Amino acid sequence: MNNQKADRLDKLLSNLGYGARKDVRLWIKEGWVTVDGKPATSPAQKVLPDQVQLEGKSLDHPHGLTLIYHKPIGTVCSRKENGRLIFADFPERWIDRKPPLSSVGRLDKETSGLLIVTDDGQLNHMLTSPKKHIAKTYSVTLDRPLAGNESEIFASGELLLEGDDKPCLPAELTVLGETSASLVLHEGRYHQVRRMFAAVGNHVTALTRTHIGALGLDACGLGEGEYTVTSAQALLELVLAESD
Q1: CA–CA distance, 194 with 202 (Å, rounded to integer)
Q2: Which principal EC class is assigned to this enzyme (predicted)?
Q3: Which domains does the chain have, with CATH numbers?
Q4: DSSP H/E element including 21
Q5: Residues 16-73: pLDDT tens digits?
Q6: Under 8 Å CB-to-CB from 58, ≥6 apart: which residues?
Q7: Is 119 assigned a catalytic role?
Q8: Catalytic: which of 7, 108, 165, 244?
Q9: What is the pLDDT of residue 224?
Q10: Which of 14, 34, 39, 37 is nearest to 24 (CA)?
Q11: CB of 117 closer than 8 Å to CB of 227
Q12: Of the residues 47, 84, 103, 209, which has the fewest C-beta atoms closer than 10 A?
């Protein structure tokens, strides 16, 4: 979202993660901050993001930040979980941005693959809302050979997972090998893929999310831990391409 609202200079720089508001006063004194090419005069000066430069450089994504990210195994999406945060793969300054960067949904610690990270709350809601029915596709490796009836069970809309009070929405399973498959989900429940296979007596040994809607991990060309910056609009066009 392109925010053209004028804001205090110190608040703008602090919200973009450059430092505390008290630091801005020093930077102004040192002449490091300019507004429309002229030295800034006060931390309280009302500015638009595109008017400001710090040490001769334009501000870093002042109108919002959205990433397409390849989450590695062993990283966690939430600051409440133990483990290496996904944010460690981004510039350190980004973790101090306000509003904060958040993952769109979560992948558990042992799952790798496609993840969207954004500070755009409206975009996050749009991509996670059950009403949107945005499909997520997973590549699954199993501990034991498939029995042969999993596709029918998952597609039935009658599979009730332990602890849930409603059955899973129909899901599409494509068998790729004796112990490998691709699974398309149209909802997001806690550890859903692992629990679905547990419900049919199997165990997931490796799990990768390969697609969010029409957006595919391979097409992004990202190695594990790599990301690319995009805009909310461009991302939506990629995700929703098939439904246009």
Answers
A1: 9
A2: isomerase
A3: 7-58 (3.10.290.10), 66-130+215-240 (3.30.70.580), 135-212 (3.30.70.1560)
A4: helix 21-30
A5: 999 999 999 999 999 999 999 999 999 999 999 999 999 999 999 999 999 999 999 9
A6: 50, 52
A7: no
A8: 108
A9: 97
A10: 14
A11: yes
A12: 84
Provide the β-strand partners of residue 58: 53
Residue 176 — pLDDT band, cuts 50, 70, 90? Answer: very high
Given this model, what pLDDT does residue 1 score? 46
Place of tokens 């979202």: 1
CA–CA separation, 69 and 105 (whole Å): 13
Overall average pLDDT of the 201-223 stretch: 97
Q: Hey, which residues does 182 pair with through a beta bridge? A: 139, 174
Q: Considering all CA atoms of the chain, what is the largest pairwise distance in Å, rounded to the nearest integer? A: 72
Q: What are phi and psi of 172, to 5 degrees?
A: -105, 120
What tokens were used for 188? Answer: 């997001």
